[in-house]
Amino acid sequence: MYYTAMFINIDTGASNGWVLSCYTGIPQCVVSQADSITALSTTEIASCMDDPRYMNWRVMTIKVDTNGTYSWWRVDSYWN
Question: I need a labelling partner for 59 at 20 to 30 A (CA). Which of 27, 38, 72, 77 fits?
Fold first, then answer.
């Protein structure tokens, strides 16, 4: 449940739905995405930076009410 003032009735405190967000992209090409610790090799870094997903983000966010009806949705893209 997403708890912020815009999704809660202030008078009753009742929730009125869910917000779900999913994204794709590669945030960085320095360490392994598996553990965020292991450094990538020079070859792995070059391959990562050539990947079209590197620094090109897509995100879809939806708001669903408590009956399962979509209240709103949006898709955004970001390129650095």
Answer: 38
